[in-house]
Amino acid sequence: MPCADDRFADELAELNSAEEFLDYFGIDFDARVVQVNRLHILQRFHDYLAKQEAGHLPDYAAYQHWLARAYADFVGSSAQTEKVFAVFQKAEGSSFVPLSSLTG
Questions:
Q1: pTM to 2 decimals?
Q2: Is there a contact between 65 and 25 (Cβ–Cβ < 8 Å)?
Q3: CB of 74 closer than 8 Å to CB of 33
């Protein structure tokens, strides 16, 4: 007999977009914020989940909390400010590549 954890994992596996995750966890959202930041929100959500205590599997409430926090990070901010992905982290330090170095 499948347990609730298996059902939860199966339901999560069916979610394909930031909007589906937000709807599933009952989080109200502004479609404009999600449209511009969907990958950043999902990556931040993943990063928050990765920081959970070792051996502790997050449940629905924990996932909901971390997704709401990840979404909120981008409501009043931007991808450039939040620096979720390495490309934005490197942008602060001078990552200059001269055109002459790009030879084929």
A1: 0.73
A2: no
A3: yes
For residue 74, with 0-12 CB atoms within 10 Å meaning exposed, 13-18 middle and 19 or more buried, which class applies? buried
Distance CA 35, CA 3 (A): 35
User: Element (H or E) spanning 15, and its range?
Assistant: none
pLDDT, tens digit, for every residue of 8-46?
889 999 999 999 999 999 999 999 999 989 988 999 998
Amino acid at 9: A
Residues 6+ apart with CB under 8 A from 92: 83
- Could you tell me if 73 and 79 are in contact, meaning their C-beta atoms sit under 8 angstroms apart? no
Model pLDDT, residue 50:
85
Beta carbons of 57 and 5 less than 8 angstroms apart: yes
